[in-house]
Amino acid sequence: MARGQPAIPLEIIGTDALLDLRAGAAAVAIRYTRRPPLGFAAQEVCRDSFFPICSPLLLASDGRAIERAADLLRYPLIHFDWMNRDPDAPTWSRWLATARSIDPELIPDKA
Question: What is the Cβ-side half-sphere exposure of residue 1, based on CA atoms within 13 angstroms?
């Protein structure tokens, strides 16, 4: 229930499917995408960033600090398969290819 307008029903639907706004399936849609669907008015709400993180216990077990991008290759990298097959979705190979510009010893093919 919305505090400001309790008489107006509010339903939040979490889905990867594109809802048909014109048919009344929803009044507003918030999409996680780099490119808005064609034919709809869109406003960017926020941007995200992607960066590697790890457990301090994992670092402690190795005994060596991560000081450069190539040091990440000593550890297992967890991959995520983006369901929508977005060609711009963050991947380790894309991140490591970009990181190579600051760490020439990094070989992205090893990720």
Answer: 3
In sequence order, what are the residues at sequence separation of 6 or more whose Cβ sits closer than 8 angstroms to the Cβ of residue 48? none
Structure tokens at 70: 């190539």
Q: Span 93-104, mean pLDDT?
A: 84
Contact by Cβ (8 Å): 73, 110 = yes
Using the 8-state DSSP alphabet, how is residue 57 labeled?
H
Instruction: Indicate the pTM of the whole model.
Output: 0.54
pLDDT (0 to 100) of residue 1: 47
Q: CA–CA separation, 92 vs 71, rounded Å?
A: 14
Torsion of CA 52, 56, 60, 61, to 10 degrees: -70
DSSP 21: T
Q: In whole angstroms, what is the distance from residue 43 CA to residue 10 CA?
A: 21
Q: Is the per-residue pLDDT at 109 higher than 80?
A: no
Q: Do residues 96 and 69 make contact, with C-beta atoms less than 8 angstroms apart? A: yes
